[in-house]
Design goal:
520 residues; 19 helices; RhoGAP_dom
C-alpha cells in the first residue's frame, strides 16, 4: 500500500472508531434520559397532593386533610359529652398531623428527586446530545480539511501545492472550532453534574480520608490503590523508571476522574503505566492523613534512627504493628506490590532504595505547616530509611499472602509470573531468621520472628550486617527479593568474633541514579 493510501486508511479507521464511541455514548445518554423520564412520570402518579402547588394548597387537597376535617366536624356536632364525639375529635387531630407529615414528605420528594429527574431528562441530556452532535459535525469537517491538506502536501501537482497554505489555514480553523466545542461540551457536562443533588453523586476517593472511603465503598483496600496495582501488574512491572517518569497531565486527570467514579472500565489506561503510577502517587499524596499516619510519625522516625540493624528492624516491626487496622492492611497491600516490582529492577531500574526515594514522601510526612514540597524535603531522608527496609524485607514484615485482586473487579494479569533470578539461591529472612548453629542454609524452626516484648530491650539471636544508606542506595540488598545479573550468596561465618552474614552487592550497572529533589 502506498504511503498516502496508508495514511488515508488510518484516518478512516480513526473516524470509524470515533463514530462507534459516539454512538455508544449517545445510546447510553438516551437510555438515561428515558429511564429518568419514566421514573418521573410514575412518581407523579404516586403523589396524593397536586404537583407544583404551594404547601398550603397541597395540604388542603390531601385526602387525609379532608378526612381530618370531616372527623373533627362530626366530633363538634356530637359534642364533648359524647364518647364517639371525643374519639372523632382526637382521631381528626391525628389525621391532620399525618396529612402535614405527608405534605412535607411529598414536597421533599419533589424537590430532591422529581425536579432533578425532570431537569435531567427534559433539559440537561437533550442539551448534551445536541452539543455532541455539533461536535461530531465539526470533527468530520476537521478530518475532511486535514485529508485535503495532507493530499496537497504529497501531491506533485503545482496547482494543488499552491493551495497548501490556504488548506492549512482551513484545517487550523476547523481544529479551533473543534476545541471550542469541546470546551463548551465539557462545561455543559460539568454544569449538569454539579446541578445534581449531593446524595446522587459518588463521593470521590481522591482527597477523602481512608477510613471514610473504605466505609462508603464497603471495601478492604482503597479502590485507587487496588485498580492501579492491578493495572501495573498487567503492563507496568518491567517499565523503566516507574513512579519516576511523569505522566501526561490530561491522561492522569482523566484516570483520576474515572477512579473517582468507582468504575472498573479502565482498559484505555493499561497502555500507559506511567499515568497509572502517577495516579497511585497522587492518591497517596492527597490523603488527608498519610497512609503511615501522623500519630506514628515520631515513632517511625525513632525506629529508623536505631543504630543496631537488627534492633532497627524490630523497632520498625513494632511501629508497623501499631498502625490502625485499615492503614496496616492497605500498607501491607502496597508494600507487597512494591517488593514484587523490585524483583524486576534489572529491567525497570526500581530497586527498593529507588522506590523508597520516589514513593516514600507520599507515604509519611510530618503534620506541620508548609507546602507539600517543603514537608517532603524535611522528611525524605527519614522516610527513605523507613520504607527501604520494609520493602526489602516485605515477607518478614507481612508474612501473609496477598490476593491483589481483592474485590474481584479486575482481571488477573495474563503475563507469566516473573521467574526467580537464581533457582538455587536459598533466600533467607533477615537477622535471627538465620540458623543458630552458624549454618546459613539451616533455617530456624520458628518461621517468623516472635513479636518483641516492649518492656524488654530489643535483641536478636544473631544479626545480619546491613549496608549503610549510602552503600545500599546503589545495589539491591534484600534477603527476600534478590534481583541481579551476578551470583549473590548469603552466608554466615561460624566464628563468633567475626560479624554475622554479609551481603555481596550487585553490580551498579543495573541501578538507575536517583535525584531525590527532582523525584519528589
Amino acid at each position: 500500500m502506498y504511503p498516502l493510501q496508508s495514511q488515508l486508511a488510518c484516518f478512516v479507521c480513526a473516524d470509524f472508531i470515533t463514530f462507534c464511541v459516539h454512538i455508544q455514548i449517545e445510546r447510553r445518554l438516551e437510555l438515561v434520559r428515558l429511564v429518568s423520564h419514566n421514573t418521573h412520570k410514575r412518581l407523579v402518579s404516586c403523589l396524593q397532593g397536586q404537583l407544583g402547588t404551594d404547601t398550603e394548597k397541597r395540604h388542603k387537597k390531601l385526602p387525609l386533610t379532608m378526612l381530618s376535617q370531616a372527623m373533627q366536624e362530626g366530633g363538634s356536632q356530637l359534642g364533648d359529652e359524647s364518647l364517639i364525639g371525643k374519639m372523632m375529635d382526637v382521631c381528626g387531630e391525628a389525621e391532620s398531623r399525618l396529612a402535614a407529615e405527608l405534605m412535607h414528605y411529598e414536597v421533599q420528594i419533589e424537590r430532591d428527586i422529581m425536579d432533578p429527574l425532570n431537569q435531567l431528562a427534559e433539559v440537561e441530556i437533550p442539551n448534551i446530545l445536541k452539543q455532541r452532535k455539533q461536535l461530531a459535525k465539526l470533527v468530520l469537517d476537521y478530518d475532511s480539511a486535514k485529508t485535503r491538506w495532507y493530499q496537497a502536501t504529497k501531491s506533485n501537482n503545482q496547482a494543488m501545492a499552491a493551495k497548501t497554505d490556504s488548506l492549512k489555514d482551513e484545517m487550523d480553523e476547523a481544529l479551533n472550532k473543534v476545541e471550542i466545542c469541546k470546551v463548551d461540551l465539557s462545561t455543559l457536562s460539568v454544569k449538569t453534574l454539579t446541578s445534581l443533588p449531593d446524595c446522587w453523586m459518588e463521593k470521590p476517593a481522591f482527597g477523602m480520608a481512608l477510613e471514610e472511603h473504605l466505609k462508603r465503598s464497603n471495601r478492604e483496600i482503597a479502590l485507587p490503590l487496588e485498580a492501579c496495582v492491578m493495572m501495573l501488574l498487567e503492563t507496568g512491572m518491567k517499565e523503566e523508571g516507574l513512579f519516576r517518569i511523569a505522566a501526561g497531565a490530561s491522561k492522569l486527570k482523566k484516570l483520576k476522574a474515572a477512579l473517582d467514579c468507582s468504575t472498573s472500565q479502565l482498559e484505555e489506561f493499561y497502555s500507559d503505566p506511567h499515568a497509572v503510577a502517577g495516579a497511585l502517587k497522587s492518591y497517596l499524596r492527597e490523603l488527608p492523613e498519610p497512609l503511615m499516619t501522623f500519630g506514628l510519625y515520631d515513632e517511625w522516625t525513632q525506629a529508623s534512627n536505631v543504630s543496631d540493624p537488627d534492633k532497627r528492624l524490630q523497632a520498625l516491626w513494632v511501629t508497623c504493628d501499631h498502625l490502625p487496622k485499615t492503614h496496616k492492611a492497605n500498607l501491607r497491600y502496597l508494600v507487597k506490590f512494591l517488593a514484587k516490582l523490585a524483583q524486576n529492577s534489572e529491567v525497570n531500574k526500581m530497586t527498593p532504595s529507588n522506590i523508597a526515594i520516589v514513593l516514600g514522601p507520599n507515604l509519611l510526612w510530618a503534620k506541620t505547616e508548609g507546602t507539600l514540597a517543603e514537608m517532603a524535603a524535611a522528611t525524605s531522608v527519614h522516610v527513605v530509611a523507613i520504607i527501604e527496609p520494609i520493602i526489602q524485607h516485605a515477607d518478614w514484615f507481612f508474612p501473609e499472602e496477598v490476593d491483589f485482586n481483592v474485590s474481584g473487579m479486575f482481571a488477573m494479569p495474563t503475563h507469566s509470573a516473573t521467574p526467580d533470578p537464581d533457582p538455587v539461591l536459598d533466600r533467607k529472612r533477615p537477622g535471627s531468621l538465620v540458623g543458630q548453629d552458624g549454618d546459613s542454609h539451616t533455617p530456624r524452626k520458628d518461621r517468623y520472628l516472635p513479636r518483641p516484648n516492649l518492656s524488654l530491650p530489643l535483641t536478636l539471636s544473631s544479626r545480619p550486617k546491613t549496608l549503610s544508606r549510602q552503600e545500599s542506595r546503589g545495589p539491591v540488598v534484600s534477603a527476600l527479593y534478590v534481583v541481579a545479573n551476578e551470583s549473590i550468596t548469603v552466608t554466615e561465618t561460624p566464628t563468633e568474633d567475626l560479624p554475622s552474614p554479609d551481603f555481596k552487592a550487585v553490580s551498579q550497572s543495573n541501578v538507575a541514579p536517583i535525584n531525590p529533589v527532582i523525584d519528589q
